[in-house]
C-alpha cells in the first residue's frame, strides 16, 4: 500500500479510480466450482466445463452476481479452484477453463462490477487481468516470487494472506502472522506493488483455537500496518461451525457475530457468502459511530 498520512483516506486504486475504505465494504463470494465447502455459494449446474457453458449455469452466474450487488456487495470474488481443507487443487488448465466460462457471463451481466479473482497461480492471474480486465487478485496461498512479480507488473491490488499452512517456520499465532505479512509486504513494495490488502488468513493452516487467538489480536495487527487495508474472511468457516457443533449451512448467525467483532477491530473488507447480513452489520456499526 502506498504511504499515507493521517490526513489521507484509506483507499485502493481500481484501474485508476480510488475506492474509499473509510467505511468498510463487503466482498461477495462466487464459487465457479462443484466442490466448495458451502454449497449455496457454488454456481448452480456446474459439474464439468461443458456444463458451465450451459444456459442454466450462465443464468445462475448472472443471478448470483446481481443478487450480491443488489444486497450491497462492493466487490465480487470469483474462485474456480476450491481451497476447502484437505481439497486437492485442480490443474491450471481446468482452473483457466472454468474462469473462461464464468468471467465473460459475469462481465456481460455486471459490466461495471469490481471483480476479484481468487487464485494462487500467476499465469491464471495474468490471463484474467489481460483478457477480462479483472480488478483485484486474491491469493490465499501467501504468495510466491512469481506471483509477486506478476502482481507488480500488472499493477493491480493484491490480497496477501497469512497462510500458516505454507510455512513451517512458526506455529500459527498473532506474532507469527505479523512477521509473515511484514516480510512479504516488504518484498511486494520493493518490486513496486502499491495496493496490497492484508488478510489474517483465518482457517488457513490454523485450528479454530489459533484462529480465535488471531481474531482477538486483530486490533493490534491492524495497528501494526497502519497504511494497509485489511480483509477478513470468516464466512461459515470451521472457526464458526466446529466451535458451535453445527454445519456450514447453519453458520450464518455465528458468522455475523464474528464479522461484527472483525469490524470493531478495524477490518476494512468482509469476504462473505451472505452479503446482506454483512452489509447490515456495517450499517449498524456506522450508525453507532455517528
Write up what this structure looks like.
The protein has 290 residues and is of the alpha/beta class. Helix 5 packs across helix 6 (174-191). It has helices at residues 49-52, 55-70, 92-109, 122-132, 145-154, 174-191, 208-216, 218-224, 238-244, 252-265, 275-289; strands at 11-14, 17-20, 25-31, 75-79, 115-118, 136-139, 158-161, 196-199, 231-232, 269-272. Strand 4, helix 3 (92-109) and strand 5 (115-118) form a beta-alpha-beta unit. The strands form 2 sheets. Strands 8-7-6-5-4-3-10-9 form an 8-stranded parallel sheet. The chain has a two-stranded antiparallel sheet with strand order 1-2. The model is unreliable at 1-8 and 44-51 (pLDDT under 50).
Summarize the structure.
The protein has 290 residues and is an alpha/beta fold. It has helices at 49-52, 55-70, 92-109, 122-132, 145-154, 174-191, 208-216, 218-224, 238-244, 252-265, 275-289, and strands at residues 11-14, 17-20, 25-31, 75-79, 115-118, 136-139, 158-161, 196-199, 231-232, 269-272.
Give the SSE map.
Layout: E1 11-14, E2 17-20, E3 25-31, H1 49-52, H2 55-70, E4 75-79, H3 92-109, E5 115-118, H4 122-132, E6 136-139, H5 145-154, E7 158-161, H6 174-191, E8 196-199, H7 208-216, H8 218-224, E9 231-232, H9 238-244, H10 252-265, E10 269-272, H11 275-289
* Radius of gyration computed on alpha carbons: 18 Å
The largest sheet has its strands arranged as 8-7-6-5-4-3-10-9
Q: Roughly what is the average pLDDT, rounded to an integer?
A: 89
- The string of secondary-structure elements, in order, is EEEHHEHEHEHEHEHHEHHEH
- What share of residues is helical? 40-55%
Amino acid at each position: 500500500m502506498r504511504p499515507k498520512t493521517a490526513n489521507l483516506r484509506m483507499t485502493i486504486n481500481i484501474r485508476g479510480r480510488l475506492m474509499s475504505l473509510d467505511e468498510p465494504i463487503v466482498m461477495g463470494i462466487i464459487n465457479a466450482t462443484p466442490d466448495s465447502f458451502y454449497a449455496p455459494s457454488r454456481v448452480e449446474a456446474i459439474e464439468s466445463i461443458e456444463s458451465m457453458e450451459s444456459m442454466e449455469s450462465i443464468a445462475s452466474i448472472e443471478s448470483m452476481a446481481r443478487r450480491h450487488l443488489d444486497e450491497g456487495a462492493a466487490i465480487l470474488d470469483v474462485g474456480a479452484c476450491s481451497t476447502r481443507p484437505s481439497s486437492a487443487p485442480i490443474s491450471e488448465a481446468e482452473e483457466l477453463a472454468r474462469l473462461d466460462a464464468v468471467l465473460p457471463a459475469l462481465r456481460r451481466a455486471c459490466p461495471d462490477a469490481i471483480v476479484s479473482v481468487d487464485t494462487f497461480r500467476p499465469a491464471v492471474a495474468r490471463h484474467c487481468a489481460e483478457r477480462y480486465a479483472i480488478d483485484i487478485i486474491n491469493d490465499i496461498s501467501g504468495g510466491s516470487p512469481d506471483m509477486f512479480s506478476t502482481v507488480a507488473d500488472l499493477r493491480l491490488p493484491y490480497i496477501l494472506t497469512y497462510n500458516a499452512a505454507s510455512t513451517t517456520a512458526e506455529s500459527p499465532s498473532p506474532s507469527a502472522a505479523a512477521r509473515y505479512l511484514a516480510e512479504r509486504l516488504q518484498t511486494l513494495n520493493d518490486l513496486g506493488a502499491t495496493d496490497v490488502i492484508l488478510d489474517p488468513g483465518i482457517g488457513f493452516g490454523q485450528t479454530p483455537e489459533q484462529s480465535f487467538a488471531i481474531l482477538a489480536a486483530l486490533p493490534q495487527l491492524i495497528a501494526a500496518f497502519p497504511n494497509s487495508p485489511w480483509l477478513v474472511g470468516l464466512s461459515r468457516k470451521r472457526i464458526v461451525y466446529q466451535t458451535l457443533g453445527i454445519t456450514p449451512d447453519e453458520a450464518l448467525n455465528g458468522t455475523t457475530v464474528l464479522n461484527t467483532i472483525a469490524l470493531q477491530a478495524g477490518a476494512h473488507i468482509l469476504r462473505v457468502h451472505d452479503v446482506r447480513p454483512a452489509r447490515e452489520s456495517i450499517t449498524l456499526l456506522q450508525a453507532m459511530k455517528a
